[in-house]
Amino acid sequence: MASRLAQFRSKAAQASEFVSKHGCAYYKELMEKNKQHVVQPPTVEKVQELSKQLFYTRLASLPGRYESFWKELDGAKQIWKNRKDLKVEDLGIVTLFGVELYAWFCVGEIVGRGFTLTGYKV
């Protein structure tokens, strides 16, 4: 346990040194590449206005999403009714979708627990 702690401290020191040397240059480069997305002057009022625009834009997109959801559900119902006519390619797509769901829920849960299988951290 003590050797792991020493290893962790060493790696943390290396990471800290790297960030202190290269962090400022990385920040400047990142801001230069994305300067078209920065609102000038950056005032509190402008930030509040942008957050309201984002909220109401997302809210306005709900009816379209609602319609898309029901269209997808109807399509899935049709596929289920005609499941005897499915091809191998269709079954492969369904399998890949199932694997993706597994990754999102199960693997995401493992990542959320800090990459431990039981929730116990060493």
Automatic annotation (TrEMBL):
<keyword id="KW-0472">Membrane</keyword>
<dbReference type="GO" id="GO:0015986">
    <property type="term" value="P:proton motive force-driven ATP synthesis"/>
</dbReference>
<keyword id="KW-0496">Mitochondrion</keyword>
<dbReference type="InterPro" id="IPR006808">
    <property type="entry name" value="ATP_synth_F0_gsu_mt"/>
</dbReference>
<dbReference type="GO" id="GO:0045259">
    <property type="term" value="C:proton-transporting ATP synthase complex"/>
</dbReference>
<dbReference type="Pfam" id="PF04718">
    <property type="entry name" value="ATP-synt_G"/>
</dbReference>
<keyword id="KW-0066">ATP synthesis</keyword>
<comment type="similarity">
    <text>Belongs to the ATPase g subunit family.</text>
</comment>
<protein>
    <submittedName>
        <fullName>Uncharacterized protein</fullName>
    </submittedName>
</protein>
<dbReference type="GO" id="GO:0031966">
    <property type="term" value="C:mitochondrial membrane"/>
</dbReference>
<keyword id="KW-0813">Transport</keyword>
<keyword id="KW-0138">CF(0)</keyword>
<dbReference type="GO" id="GO:0015078">
    <property type="term" value="F:proton transmembrane transporter activity"/>
</dbReference>
<keyword id="KW-0375">Hydrogen ion transport</keyword>
<keyword id="KW-0406">Ion transport</keyword>
